[in-house]
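Reviewers asked in the last cycle whether our approach scales beyond single polypeptides. To address this, we selected a multi-component target totalling 962 residues and predicted its structure end to end. The input consisted of the following lines:
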Amino acid sequence: MTAAFDVTRRALLAAPLSGLALAAARAGTPRIAAIDWAALETLLAIGVAPVAAAELILYRAVVVEPALPPGVADLGLRGSPNYEALWAARPDLILSSDFYVWAEPKLRLIAPVERLSVYVRGRAPYGAAEEMTRTIGRLAERPAAAEALIAGTRDELERLRGRLAGLAERRLIPVNFGDPRHFRVFGTDSMFGEVLARLGLDNAWGAGTSYSASAPIGLEALAGIGDAWIVVVPPIPPDTRRALAQSVFWAALPNVRAGRVLVLEPINPFGALPAALRFGRLVAAGLTAPGGGRGLG
Amino acid sequence: MAELTLAARRPAGPALLWGVLATTAAALFAARLALPPAVSADAATADGLRHILLWHSTLPRAATALLAGAALGLAGALLQRVLRNPIADPSTLGIASGAQLALTLALVLAPAALGVAREAVAFAGGLAAAAIVLCLAWSRGLAPVTVAIAGMTLALMASALGAAIALAHGEYVLSLFVWGAGSLHQQSWAPARSLALNLAAGGLAAALLSRPLLLLGLDDASARSLGVGLLTSRLAVIAVAVWLAASVTAEVGIIGFIGLAAPALASASGVTSPRRLLLVAPPLGALLLWLTDGLVQMTASRGSDAIPTGAAAGLIGGPLLLWLLPRLALGERAPPQLAPHPIRRLTRPRHALAGLAAAGLAIAAITLVLGRAPDGWSLAHGDLLAALLPFRGPRMLAAAAAGALLGAAGALMQRLTGNPLAGPEVLGVNAGAGVGLCATLMLLAAPGPEAMMAGTTLGALAAIAVILAIAARTGFGPERLLLAGIAVGAFCLALLTAVLASGDRNAFTLLAWMAGSTDRITLSQALVTAGAALVLIAPLPLLGRWLDLLPLGTAASHGLGLPVAGSRFVLALAAALMAALASLMVGPLSLVGLVGPHLARLLGFARGGPQVVAAALIGAVLLLGVDWLGRTIAFPYQIPTGLLASLVGGPYLLWLLRRGGSTSA
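The resulting structure, written as structure tokens, was:
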């Protein structure tokens, strides 16, 4: 096993255009690795399979779509990417973001690094995600696919807006539960907030939160917005579902009494255009479902 | 001391103070009742909502604050009485951290258990923590500072493990932070009801145990002659205190240091009889937490407290410990004991050191070439080794340098304080480094590795300055130095907890440091650290005489012509600098500073100079090995080196110290 590994590795070092590398070169796509999930989503959505990406076990559970093709090497936790595994995947280009600046000196030893950030203070994430998609399209030599993703996402959100036009209740608050007593909220300047605006819906929180509220908020704050839909972004901690089901306070909230609670499928709150569209689709499907939202009960 | 005697002479003073505090807390609460939060709905619905908010949020929150404060006050008073230790409480004994860690583990391993047996899980964790701390401190007669050191070490370990779990389970990161910081937001009476039941049961148990409890304050011999089943009563009282503290952690998370503050302030107000102290501490604890929570709610905007109540209460812990310091000196029973004698003495320590160094080089060579790749294990050489070297080299160098620094710093600390549990971690320097890192992350938009290193270094230096300034007042006496370190560490940890509770994305970077990842270290950082390690460690053998004499105590050292305060200052400064440098590489905790020196003594390095060098070599080898394990066992996922070292070293240390205790007895 050791010897075989050594031989292939040395052969590859000596002749970079043999074996897999040659296949990739023939296909005309650069070998790209992604540390940030927003870049990973975008790559997959424009039909490029990266050679390596971080934390794939959790990606499959939390981000879900676009689905990962086989053959993408797992680099371990995003907070501690495995440089040796990344080196072994021989990328030509590594996509990083503002969250991983500390890793860049090491990443640059492996391949050129491109820092593409959707979430930057004082910048609207949807526009930043479009710009990143365009950049990734150029880097991955798929500019047409990138433009198609940008236009397709806009069109699809526009179509969903039309579907939601007749809806009576247009106020929503997207939240994520920390425990039965606390949540964080995604404000108007978050990706989810921007998608709501594109869908023609109102964010009931009505203020920016720099992507998601910076401190845990007590559940009692929900009493201030009794008319809005409560849109729950997973994960929901296991005991929270049970505790809320038994909570007098939760049951007494006008939104809960009226069945205006919508629990979404898992979704990446720090994603790019694919995550934005997934959020839009899930919200639209939930709001227009015949029986109303899928509640917590 | 002056303020204590003053307070005792003028009983009106404290009464007035408590009256003012109670009035303030009540006024804050009244303000909340008078100014309910805005609700947007039609008049009828709004009325209904205000009613719900009052009865299901505002009132239960006040009740929970009062009950949790009372439970912690009682737990603290019980622990302080039974351990005869004025700085014992659920925070210093690591009970709250243990309960918290058990809940965290349950969340990711057995979530179903949390739904049905949340309090039992917390109790098991708290009990395990108390058992470990008492076991560690047993051979030192449960001396107050030693108990606090062991508790602090355990709390650090729990926070490192919690950080690693949060990193590996990023999806639950908000939940983990909310628990860790002890927030009092309420929407039901369930936590208050549960706390009330537990407090009543705990109070009843304390009342039943009151006779043995009062006698336990006496020394062991007198208590035994009065017919008290010493061990049984002690354990029963400790179990009651753990149950109270664990139920608070289970219901609202970690609330720091109320259990320390309530009894301390009671006795400062002139309550001297043990029975009255037990009666007064719970209401004082209730008042303190209610007041803290009232102030915290003042800072709230849009339903979110600026910092969680538990973390806010934790901030008083550090200053409080310092204030208690003079009283501790009075309670000191035994002079610092010498560390247990080695089992055998080496006749030729130099040869043994050379052997250790050779073994270290061999291990370095093996860990350098042996590694894992996506397609299996490999022995790297030639081109492959050259290609992997930029990734393996810096982290190995950093691990070895950090291990050497920690080993040597630990040996210095133990010689300096005469306390076998005094690791460099408890100096609080590392937590200071964490606060520096945290500030860098919050102030700069996207800090690079250099900025983060600079911030971490500044934080550590600030902590060193504060600790040494506090310790200078008694000529750097060992107990004061340790306690200053613990106090600074507790304060910095509370700050970090408050920041982590925000669940900000930057929290992940902070977590990676807390867990002790070595893989992000650049070659230049590793080289600088290794150079600094050489410069700091090389002169230490020249200080062999100081190291041999200082453990004999102040009087003996002074009599033998040692400049006691001067030598202590130099050694403390060296240990703090070494700990700070190491924490930049492997995070705030690794236990290498404890394991290294103990192994060195076990191998027979008895004299100060050789022991320091041996501890440094052993520390370097240990961290090299652990770093290798961390990058191979779960490939491509990596286990942080600092955390893995403390998980490997913890149990071994327990075994070592128990063994050391029995052979020296």
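Chain A touches chain B through 81 residues (CB under 8 Å). We regard this as preliminary and will revisit it once experimental data from Aim 1 are available.
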